[in-house]
Design brief:
single chain; 117 residues; Helix Hairpins; 6 helices
């Protein structure tokens, strides 16, 4: 998986660099773009109930969701590259941190925040 993330990141960087877009890919701009794309992903689900979401995901319109997920992932990988943060390492560290904040015996089956357990 880690190799796939690195390979995909390099593919994105090459795509960007061939177009001379690095000048626009500052840390701030990448974070802003990530947020915008995440909002566009949310827009796919806006005003839909769970049944309508399932219908969407089984329809031809699923492509819009897929494309927005790709945009979110692309900006996230570019942001990680720009900041020097290893995505896989960061996620693993966050899982370990959350495991301490949300022990299984207190967290199983409920959605309470760690300070309410």
């Amino acid at each position: 998986m880690e190799d796939a993330v690195k390979e995909l990141t390099e593919k994105l960087v090459n795509f960007r660099d061939e177009r001379e877009w690095k000048q626009f890919h500052t840390t701030k701009n990448l974070a802003v773009s990530l947020s915008i794309e995440a909002a566009e992903l949310l827009e796919c689900f806006q005003w839909k109930n769970n049944e309508e979401v399932e219908e969407l995901l089984q329809s031809e319109d699923r492509i819009k969701v897929k494309e927005e997920i790709a945009d979110v992932g692309s900006y996230l990988l570019l942001l990680c590259k720009e900041t020097g943060i290893d995505l896989v390492e960061a996620i693993n560290e966050k899982i370990e941190k959350n495991a301490k904040k949300y022990p299984v015996e207190l967290s199983r089956g409920n959605a309470k925040k760690y300070n309410e357990l």
